[in-house]
Write a structure and sequence with these properties.
419 residues, mainly alpha, 2 domains, 77% helix, globular
Length: 419
């Protein structure tokens, strides 16, 4: 990534600054309209099924927390303003959802009229929902660009905002589907259909659902906006290709292909999930890794000009290059200096990231936070935030976590009609 491609915007995208952008008021009006429509829907659902609605909101609200933390952590070196993350999430949950629910139904009816009722029954959801929903979510990323163009200065920024739009859509749509499952069950205000929907659409499908599709689209919009060193036709083609990848992944996920499963049982259901969801997940992981590495190289190069071990050492420069190494440095500090050491290393890494952004702006960096955390680490007997050797505790923890995750996954699959 070239320096021009990642030149950060001035700190902060506060509401007072956003309010001076005309596009902000257009987006705000759309958010208000979406909020009114979704509030009306929520009122009807809660009035008929209060217990089920409350359970759905709690379960999927809790599910949103780890997704939010992971997405927000993707761009550690140049974090996005919380105002814009909330704006992206709200677009997905209010605007994109309120538009997509009626529009998808209308498009499915059109498929039935132009094709046949049988075609609509089999492929209606696969053709209508992706076409409407991916378009609505793409417009959310475009809205972020129009409101705060300076904050979209890398492909990774586009991934983050796209994923946040997708996450907002995913959580709100899943709540609606969960309560809809209660209505279809026809047994009153029960939470069993909500739990089943949570296991299928949240726990099992959430990893490769709308958050993932939004990240793909966001990568394309980020490339279109940032890579001014490429021809406009090339950038536009890349954005269109990213949209088509998200659309095709969504079509595959909703399609009746493998609907009967490669056999019966838990393993068959797991196989379907992997065959449909793994390709787009792998593609997003590759895109995120490449975008992160290019951005990290740029910022680490800026920090390397300091040439002052009191501010940053060679080992710390290396640790900042990847999320895995940053996490390893925090673990190492935790092993040597406890929770306080782990916290101090994380704060030092955050201070380094802020200095890197300030250096890239050719401004006057503030080194106070760096010096303060360095002092804390020295007092704890761990003066350098570097990744240490892999410990047996970390290996054992990884093994135990993997075993538990597999066990929980197996139980969830079995509960949904496996063995």
């Amino acid at each position: 990534m070239t320096p021009a491609a990642v030149r950060p915007a001035p700190d902060g995208a506060r509401l007072s600054a956003l309010a001076r952008v005309p596009a902000f008021w257009v987006v705000a009006a759309l958010l208000l309209a979406g909020a009114v429509r979704m509030a009306q829907l929520a009122g009807r659902l809660a009035g008929t099924y209060p217990l089920a609605t409350a359970a759905a909101v709690v379960l999927f609200g809790l599910l949103a927390v780890p997704f939010w933390l992971v997405v927000a952590e993707l761009d550690f070196l140049e974090r996005e303003p919380i105002e814009l993350l909330v704006l992206a999430f709200a677009w997905g949950g209010l605007v994109a959802t309120s538009v997509s629910i009626p529009a998808s139904t209308a498009l499915e009816d059109l498929v039935a009229k132009l094709g046949s009722p049988h075609l609509a029954a089999d492929w209606g959801a696969a053709l209508a929902a992706p076409s409407v929903e991916e378009t609505a979510k793409t417009l959310g990323v475009v809205a972020i660009v129009l409101v705060a163009r300076a904050q979209v200065n890398s492909v990774l920024d586009g991934v983050v905002y796209g994923a946040m739009v997708g996450l907002g859509f995913q959580i709100v749509e899943d709540i609606v589907f969960a309560v809809g499952a209660v209505a279809l069950a026809g047994q009153g205000d029960q939470i069993q259909p909500v739990i089943a929907t949570f296991l299928l659409r949240g726990f099992l499908s959430g990893v490769w659902s709308h958050t993932l599709f939004g990240a793909l689209v966001g990568a394309g919009i980020g490339y279109l906006v940032v890579r001014r060193d490429r021809r406009p036709a090339h950038r536009l083609g890349a954005a269109l290709l990213a949209f088509l990848a998200a659309w095709a992944s969504h079509v595959l996920w909703n399609s009746p292909l493998l609907g009967d499963g490669p056999g019966n049982g838990t393993l068959a259901l797991l196989g379907v999930l992997l065959l449909k969801g793994l390709p787009p997940l792998a593609l997003v992981l590759v895109l995120v890794r490449r975008a992160h590495d290019r951005e990290a190289d740029y910022y680490v190069e800026r920090l390397s000009t300091l040439r002052d071990p009191e501010l940053i050492t060679e080992g710390e420069l290396e640790a900042l290059r990847s999320g895995a190494k940053r996490a390893a440095a925090r673990r190492f500090a935790g092993e040597r200096a406890g929770r306080a050491g782990r916290r101090a290393v994380r704060r030092l890494q955050g201070a380094h990231a802020r200095v890197a952004v300030e250096l890239s702006q050719a401004g006057a960096p503030n080194y106070d936070d760096v010096r303060e955390q360095r002092k804390v680490l020295r007092e704890l007997g761990h003066p350098e935030a570097i990744a240490g050797p892999r410990s047996w505790r970390h290996t054992a923890s990884t093994i135990v976590t993997t075993v538990v995750a597999i066990a929980v996954l197996w139980v969830a699959l079995s509960a949904l009609g496996g063995a």
